[in-house]
């Protein structure tokens, strides 16, 4: 099935939509990473421990995102996706900006809860839109384009957050990185057309979460794939939260210095996404299993570099190891998104993406940073500023788990991908 037949949209509109989706991903990760970079100055002002900051940076955001992911997924399958995403973008940008007015820990938690709830619309909406705009053999490249936006957002967020914090304080930094999203939301609403869906619009009554989960479990590849994806995301997300802290505590950098170095590290990771996604598409033409095997390699090869970035004795060595890690691991997201987008029929792609994201967010985004913060607090009396170095050793263990379960998922992914193009009665229809 050609792109034109699948979407009824011109190539120009298709690529413009993809460019705006990449810009939305950029805004989302700028907001997210700038907040992470501000961890140390926020912690100093509010006088709270690492576990509390782990909750603020990861769990508060991720729990709200998880709670709203399924309702957002259902809305994606039932409503105008362009309008939903524009409204969500405006909401999380406003909440980020208003977070700059917060003077207490509780107020910041509320702001992060709102950001997480609104950002729950981004992944299912993007998966659904890209799934309708591009056929299976081009989705890796399309999701790569969005992931480049994410990578650039992380890099810019780290750099801008650090600079603005040093110059004007963390409150002003949050306001500055949140406000531009309101402009992008308006641009999305005014310039992006809602594409024609590849499948019929789902207008049936909502079903219970248990039914959704049973339908997803019927796709044999999804359970091991989700475990692997959650472990990989947990390792990467925890590293992105706590490695900047390591640069400041262990290597003595200021927020601006850390932002410059970490922004450069993440920018190098964008190069990974630029080639891994399109190359995975080439291999996927020989079967979806090849794409999942890419994820096995990413998890296995990035683990030793993640380990070395934590234990490196010098700033220079830590930086080079971190660059190596992001060059490999930075490409995992478009490959994973292309995989699970191809495992579900078009008309319920948003719901399946939401179920996947629910589990991945709870285990990876909410759990990992908070657990790492608890370990930091437990070991701080013994290791002082060096504690974060040893806590980060938990991350390569998660990568090993991810490699094992991706390998299991690869065994059935070809059959399940083929079945998604010809859904069997009663299989995913529960959604």
TrEMBL record:
<feature type="transmembrane region" description="Helical">
    <location>
        <begin position="167"/>
        <end position="190"/>
    </location>
</feature>
<dbReference type="InterPro" id="IPR036259">
    <property type="entry name" value="MFS_trans_sf"/>
</dbReference>
<feature type="transmembrane region" description="Helical">
    <location>
        <begin position="141"/>
        <end position="161"/>
    </location>
</feature>
<feature type="transmembrane region" description="Helical">
    <location>
        <begin position="317"/>
        <end position="340"/>
    </location>
</feature>
<keyword id="KW-0812">Transmembrane</keyword>
<keyword id="KW-0813">Transport</keyword>
<protein>
    <submittedName>
        <fullName>MFS transporter</fullName>
    </submittedName>
</protein>
<feature type="domain" description="Major facilitator superfamily (MFS) profile">
    <location>
        <begin position="17"/>
        <end position="414"/>
    </location>
</feature>
<feature type="transmembrane region" description="Helical">
    <location>
        <begin position="292"/>
        <end position="311"/>
    </location>
</feature>
<dbReference type="InterPro" id="IPR020846">
    <property type="entry name" value="MFS_dom"/>
</dbReference>
<dbReference type="InterPro" id="IPR011701">
    <property type="entry name" value="MFS"/>
</dbReference>
<feature type="transmembrane region" description="Helical">
    <location>
        <begin position="387"/>
        <end position="406"/>
    </location>
</feature>
<feature type="transmembrane region" description="Helical">
    <location>
        <begin position="222"/>
        <end position="243"/>
    </location>
</feature>
<dbReference type="GO" id="GO:0016020">
    <property type="term" value="C:membrane"/>
</dbReference>
<dbReference type="InterPro" id="IPR044770">
    <property type="entry name" value="MFS_spinster-like"/>
</dbReference>
<feature type="transmembrane region" description="Helical">
    <location>
        <begin position="84"/>
        <end position="107"/>
    </location>
</feature>
<dbReference type="Pfam" id="PF07690">
    <property type="entry name" value="MFS_1"/>
</dbReference>
<feature type="transmembrane region" description="Helical">
    <location>
        <begin position="51"/>
        <end position="72"/>
    </location>
</feature>
<feature type="transmembrane region" description="Helical">
    <location>
        <begin position="352"/>
        <end position="375"/>
    </location>
</feature>
<keyword id="KW-0472">Membrane</keyword>
<feature type="transmembrane region" description="Helical">
    <location>
        <begin position="255"/>
        <end position="280"/>
    </location>
</feature>
<dbReference type="GO" id="GO:0022857">
    <property type="term" value="F:transmembrane transporter activity"/>
</dbReference>
<keyword id="KW-1133">Transmembrane helix</keyword>
């Amino acid at each position: 099935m050609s792109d034109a037949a699948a979407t009824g949209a011109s190539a120009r509109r298709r690529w413009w939509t993809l460019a705006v989706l990449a810009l939305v991903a950029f805004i989302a990760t700028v907001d997210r990473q700038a907040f992470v970079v501000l961890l140390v100055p926020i912690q100093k002002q509010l006088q709270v421990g690492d576990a509390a900051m782990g909750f603020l940076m990861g769990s508060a955001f991720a729990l709200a995102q998880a709670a709203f992911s399924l309702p957002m997924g259902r809305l994606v399958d039932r409503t105008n996706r362009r309008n939903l995403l524009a409204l969500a973008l405006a909401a999380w940008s406003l909440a980020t900006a208003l977070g700059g007015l917060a003077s207490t820990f509780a107020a910041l938690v509320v702001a992060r809860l709102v950001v997480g709830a609104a950002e729950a619309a981004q992944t299912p909406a993007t998966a659904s839109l890209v799934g309708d705009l591009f056929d299976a053999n081009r989705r890796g490249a399309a999701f790569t384009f969005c992931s480049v936006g994410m990578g650039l957002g992380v890099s810019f967020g780290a750099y801008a957050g650090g600079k603005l914090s040093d110059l004007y304080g963390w409150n002003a930094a949050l306001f500055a990185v949140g406000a531009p999203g309101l402009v992008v939301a308006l641009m999305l609403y005014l310039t992006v057309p809602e594409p024609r869906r590849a499948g019929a619009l789902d207008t049936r009554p909502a079903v219970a979460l248990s039914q959704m989960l049973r339908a997803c479990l019927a796709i044999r590849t999804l359970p091991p794939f989700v475990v692997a994806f959650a472990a990989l995301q947990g390792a990467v997300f925890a590293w992105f939260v706590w490695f900047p802290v390591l640069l400041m505590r262990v290597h003595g950098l200021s927020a601006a210095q850390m932002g410059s170095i970490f922004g450069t590290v993440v920018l190098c990771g964008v190069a990974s996404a630029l080639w891994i996604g399109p190359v995975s598409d080439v291999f996927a033409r020989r079967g979806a299993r090849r794409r999942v095997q890419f994820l096995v390699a990413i998890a296995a090869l990035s683990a030793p570099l993640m380990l070395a970035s934590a234990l490196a004795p010098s700033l220079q060595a830590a930086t080079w190891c971190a660059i190596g890690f992001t060059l490999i691991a930075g490409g995992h997201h478009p490959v994973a998104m292309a995989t699970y987008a191809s495992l579900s029929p078009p008309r319920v792609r948003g719901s399946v993406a939401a179920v996947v994201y629910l589990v991945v967010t709870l285990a990876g985004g909410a759990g990992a940073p908070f657990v790492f913060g608890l370990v930091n607090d437990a070991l701080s009396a013994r290791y002082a500023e060096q504690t974060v170095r040893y806590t980060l050793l938990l991350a390569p263990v998660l990568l090993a788990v991810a490699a094992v379960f991706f390998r299991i998922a690869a065994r059935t992914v070809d059959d399940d991908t083929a079945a998604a193009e010809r859904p069997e009665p009663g299989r995913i229809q529960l959604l």
